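Hey, sorry to bother you again with one of my protein questions. There's a protein on my desk that I can't quite get my head around. No rush at all, and the record is pasted right below.
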Amino acid sequence: MNIWVAGARPRTLPAAIAPVLIGTSLINIDNQGINWVNALLALAVGLLLQIAVNYSNDYSDGIRGTDEVRVGPIRLVASGLATADQVKRAAILAYSLAAISGLVLALKTSPLLVLVGGIAIIAGWNYTGGKNPYGYSGFGEVSVFIFFGLVATMGSYFAQSEKLTWQSLLLAIPMGSLSCTILGLNNLRDRPKDETVGKRTLAVRLGDKKARFALIALLLAALVTSLAAVAITPWALLVLLTLPLYLILINGIMNGVTGLGLIRLLGKAGELQLLTSLLITLALSITKA
């Protein structure tokens, strides 16, 4: 695999696609057609921001030396496959393309999106970058919930309707919770190493046992709020088809899996988020039909 494709961490991209699918398809309940140009622009912003964050994390962690021993995906700087400057330029390019896509979307809808997009870019860089990265202080999950849950889902709906509704907020919660689950599993996997290098992620702050309880709470929150979408359409019960994945994840977390076992659970969490978004999208489409 090309090192730049690997460095972009394609397995994380469903977390960027899922909320855009839901936010875009929610326009169906308004009995309006989807604006596909706006939908594609919203998707481009989401994907490019995810890729940019992945590259900037690789760069920032690499120059700090916190990525030298990893169980997870390849890191370009730490492994020596690319220089820090090369990865930094890749991150800046991805952020720039995200900004351009967002600017075009804002020109087609509302200038408010310029402000939201700017804040998202700053948050993405400062997750592990800057003098005081908040990802090193246990606030990564909060940021992920806001930007890959609330902003991504509600922003995609706003790109279609130019309004925000309680329905878009409700459907943003499971997306944010599942994105936090993915990050939480990643941080739980890296907890022993992060603790030794002073990276105080939420998993490090809570400790192994409490971090696992927090993950289960996030999964339950995602399931409950997904099913609560029956208030929007009874077809939201399709989400029950994801129960096997929930059981696999909860069982693995409760049984204390570590290392490679957590990597497998990360894959399942990504599948769960994407499947949830597809089922809710289907439910909303059936409702319109």
